[in-house]
Amino acid sequence: MFCSLPSVLLKELADDEGQIIPERRFVEAVNREAYQYQIGDFPAEWEAWIRKKREDPPTIEEILRNENYREEMKQKVKDVSEKDKLLQAKEYEQGLIAEPSHTQVKGHASAPYYGKKEPSQDPTSTANTFQPGAWMPPGSGSSQNK
Fold it and tell me: What is the pTM of this model?
């Protein structure tokens, strides 16, 4: 996850007319350049504080507690999915559940697929597509039987 606690800079300024300029929140990562930032590099608690979704910056204890909770949840999800796979395998063997069919998707779901297209001697046109007819040499095919 994260290696060190980012340093935090808070600024709330008043301009010459007495208006309060809202604070700007920054997090400076240690040993990292700005262009190397990846989503998830900072804990979610810091992200929420930067975006002003929470009032106070997170504490180290809070970050560690939430990180441990996330790890526990990942482990529980992994355990449950393994149990589910074993249960499904057992039910397949008993014939209670049909095994999933292995379908192959070809083309777009809304477009009908009727198999491999054979080249046609006649040109075809549908909407924006034009496909010229296939060239057949003279003396072959049905053109000579006429």
Answer: 0.48
